[in-house]
Design a protein that fits this description.
Chain lengths: 331, 166
């Protein structure tokens, strides 16, 4: 096979600058060397690499060289291609450390299991000529949940009574999606606010990135539950309510009731879990669910099924969700 | 349910050795007692390893170590003058083991549930488990076998032996 990409690019993309045409790549082992202008040839299809993707963390761009944005030459469709990369690293959750692993095989398995289920990103796995596990993903055109929330300029009270009920209903759907994984003995592994996308065209909430996994523990699903709890606190509070923000409130003329360490989130002592203390109109039943993720709590949800059951009870009973119940009868 | 039919959960950790030692000292003057030393094998997920060979090597190292420590725990009973016929070993293979196909295997999703299943099947009146003492955060994020047993075990007595290291 011709190892230069000139001819194939000339055929499908005649305007592509010839000087940028790279190689045709069939062995993706050395993913660092695959760059703009290279064409990855997998399972009879050509994918032009247009860029390496990055992850947004703490305002910084963290390049992920094993994740390429590509154009499928035969169809013109944009794809994300994740190349095989195994790594392990320590993650800190509050004061605790745990070893996290990146596993392409795990992500492939979940992609196959959730095929056609739009609550999850979609894609397929192919093996390159060296047997590397390559995932070819459909791009979700949408926005991360935290960015959507951040763009809202209204007051919390207005948010809580207008936007939040629909978001809460969508969140229940997203939590049920995770319950579905657990029911099938899989875990998401990296539940974060920016791994839940709101698709622009459908407004569906969709989970992305399933390649993280953790070592042995008594409850293999607890970290997913922890991630869901963190997203709930974000949703109820409209944004993250930090100890620093609370200090400002405390010094203002109209202070909120005294906030103690027990009001903060378990394992994240800088975040408020007792959101009712900042926004007193939060109903008790909803705040009680938030308090399950607080430092005060000593009885935790034992499963996502138990968590979703509490959310659904709230949705069905609280007046704030009355109109949303009509719009989301499936909840 | 026979309270003298005791199930001791063992996992090679220091607290589980302490639970074995505690049990041995508790029962040495009781006649007709029967102890089952239970080990539920847990192996790392294949997903964590780049190749099958690396995973198998890790599993082999772990299972060898598990069986060595289980025998060591068994010896603690003999050292406490408990008759050999009074102590059984039960080693439950992991369902994901690359080495052994067993009719009964542990999925690894909840050790506490596996222990309770064995307790019911074996008509054990007492479960013994060691506890190393973990923070609320650790319990929340990683789970705790002893806490789960405390919540779920309703059909028998439960002895939780605190580790001296706490």
């Amino acid at each position: 096979m011709d190892t230069r990409a000139y001819d194939i690019l000339a055929e499908y993309l005649p305007d592509f600058p010839r000087r940028h045409a790279g190689r045709i790549v069939t062995d993706t082992t050395d993913f660092m060397s695959i760059d703009y202008g290279d064409v990855i040839f997998l399972d009879g299809i050509h994918y032009l690499v247009t860029k390496n993707l990055s992850e947004r963390r703490f305002g910084l761009e963290d390049p992920k060289y094993w994740v390429k944005r590509c154009k499928e030459l035969e169809t013109g469709i944009q794809r994300i291609i994740k190349l095989e990369f195994y790594e392990s690293f320590e993650v800190s959750i509050g004061k605790l450390n745990s070893t996290c692993y990146r596993s392409p095989r795990k992500e492939s398995r979940i992609l196959a299991m959730t095929e056609g289920d739009k609550r999850f990103m979609q894609g397929r796995t192919v093996m390159d000529e060296m047997g590397n596990c390559v995932r070819i993903l459909d791009i979700i055109y949408g926005t991360e949940l935290d960015i959507v929330l951040d763009r809202l300029t209204m007051s919390h009270e207005e948010y809580f009574n207008t936007v939040f009920p629909d978001y809460f209903a969508q969140f229940i759907g997203a939590v049920r999606a995770i319950e579905h994984l657990h029911h099938n003995h899989e875990q998401h592994g990296d539940i974060r606010r920016d791994h839940l996308l709101i698709e622009s065209s459908t407004r569906d909430w969709r989970w992305i990135d399933f390649d993280y996994t953790f070592g042995l523990r008594e409850n293999p699903f607890a970290l997913d539950l922890f991630g869901l709890g963190s997203i709930l606190l974000l949703l109820v509070g409209q944004r993250e309510i930090t100890a620093q923000q609370l200090a400002v409130v405390k010094n203002s003329p109209v202070g909120s009731p005294a906030i103690t360490k027990e009001d903060m989130a378990l394992a994240m002592p800088y975040r408020l879990a007792n959101i009712q203390k900042k926004y007193p109109y939060i109903p008790d039943a909803l705040n009680n669910i938030c308090m399950h993720f607080s430092a005060k709590n000593s009885v935790f949800y034992s499963s996502v099924a138990e968590f979703v059951s509490a959310l659904v009870t709230c949705f069905n009973e609280l007046p704030v969700f009355k109109a949303a119940r009509g719009r989301y009868p499936e909840v | 349910m026979n309270i003298y039919n005791i199930l001791v959960a063992f996992d090679s950790s220091k607290p589980s050795f302490e639970a074995v030692e505690y049990t041995a000292r508790m029962i040495r003057s009781i006649p007709d007692v029967l102890v089952t030393l239970l080990f539920i094998e847990r192996l790392p997920d294949k997903d964590l390893f780049e190749t099958e060979a690396l995973w198998r090597t890790e599993c082999l190292d772990l299972t060898t170590e598990y069986k060595r420590t289980l025998n060591k725990a068994h010896e603690l009973f003999a050292r406490n003058e408990i008759h050999e016929n009074s102590v059984n070993q039960e080693y439950i293979v992991s369902c994901s083991s690359p080495f052994e196909g067993a009719k009964v295997c542990a999925t690894g999703e909840s050790i506490a549930k596996d222990i309770i299943t064995i307790q019911k099947e074996g008509n054990h009146g007492t479960i013994v488990i060691g506890r190393r003492g973990i923070s609320k955060e650790e319990e929340f994020l990683f789970g705790s076998v002893s806490v789960d047993l405390l919540r779920q075990c309703t059909g028998c007595a439960l002895w939780i032996v605190n580790s001296a290291e706490q």
